[in-house]
């Protein structure tokens, strides 16, 4: 999983230590998330997203999705426009 955490943190002018203190985690946790050695828990990912006032999916990008891809998607409903196209059986 890719992430934009380092870029967002630097844009705010915060050090890893300052950002870690704001989230009440260790500097090492932030460092490991930034370099991709650690995936944050869901509560931590949400806290990070709230801190930057961005959607989680804008900060944490699944593999195979370009980092600059817009997280906005055409609204097609919860399961898309192909509901009922699964095989019955």
TrEMBL record:
Ranges for domain HTH cro/C1-type: 5-59
One Gene Ontology term of the molecular function aspect: DNA binding
Domain of life: Bacteria
InterPro entries per the UniProt record, alphabetical: Cro/C1-type_HTH, Lambda_DNA-bd_dom_sf
Alphabetically ordered keywords of this record: DNA-binding
PROSITE patterns: HTH_CROC1
Annotated region (Disordered), positions in chain: 70-89
Coiled-coil annotated residue ranges, if any: none
UniProt key word Cytoplasm: no
Record keyword DNA-binding present: yes
PANTHER family given in the database record: DNA-BIDING PHAGE PROTEIN, TRACRIPTIONAL REGULATORY PROTEIN-RELATED-RELATED
The protein's name in its UniProt record: Transcriptional regulator
Originating organism: Arthrobacter globiformis
């Amino acid at each position: 999983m890719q992430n934009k955490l380092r870029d967002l943190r630097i844009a705010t002018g915060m050090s890893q230590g300052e950002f870690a203190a704001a989230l009440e985690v260790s500097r090492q946790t932030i460092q490991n998330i930034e370099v991709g050695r650690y995936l944050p828990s869901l509560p931590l990912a949400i806290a990070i997203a709230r801190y930057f006032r961005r959607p989680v999916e804008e900060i944490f990008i699944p593999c195979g999705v370009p980092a600059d891809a817009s997280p906005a998607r055409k609204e097609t409903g919860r399961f898309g426009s192909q509901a009922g196209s699964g095989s019955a059986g």
